Amino acid sequence: MKGRWIGSPGLATVFVVTLGLGGCGWASLPSGATSQAELMHRDWTVFTIAGLCVFAIVGGLIVGSPFVWRRRGEALPPQFRRNVPIEIITTVIPLIMIALLFVLTYRVESVVERLSPSPSTIVDVVGFRWSWRFQYSGTSVQVIGTPKQPPEMVIPLGRTTRINLESADVNHAFWVPGFLFKRDAIPGVHNSFDWHPDHLGVFVGRCAEFCGLEHAFMTFAVRVVPPDEFERWLRQHETRPTAYRQGPR
Ligand SMILES: [Cu+2]
Questions:
Q1: Cα distances (Å, whole numbers) of residue 183 to 41, 174, 176
Q2: Rounded to the nearest whole angstrom, what is the distance from the C-alpha of residue 219 to the centroid of ligand 1?
């Protein structure tokens, strides 16, 4: 029994399936539809490659050591209490890696968090149980969703949209997976961030913080359209804003 499981087909299967599932995750992660998301995706890729390298080295040492340094015949392998060079290396290398990843994260976050001095569109977003309200600043256009009728936010391609986020009641989280972006909506806290979309399309959004019975229905959509179409959409709905007033507020 001793040592037999190391080379068993079962273990090999677990190893291959784990790698395969990891591969699926890699392939399915979108690169993101905003310039901020592209930076986040690059950051994520570096972290994943670094993690895989560490996994390969540590896993290789764990699996290979019993074979390379196993007891052969009656002779014991060399016995020692400490190895200062190895201990220094295994302390310094992780510290360097963490420092590099920290610097990389800090630089990316600084860009993602940076607010433009002149956003072309400002949308005030309020999360409430159980939907979202989108108010286009400086206009009368307001989109209010309900659990049965999720709201849609329309924003222009290639321009900066500022989102001012808050909550009317409990904690929510404003998440757009296609933008690789999530931010908490907390009562009494005003969060602001910018999106600079560089892909057309409709992107699903949802609340990512369990906030009550109908939390699962707190979905919404973000539709990225060409700037001229956005201006047209805004003008149309400004002249008849009630068409876009839905729900209880
Ligand atoms: Cu929720």
A1: 17, 5, 9
A2: 9
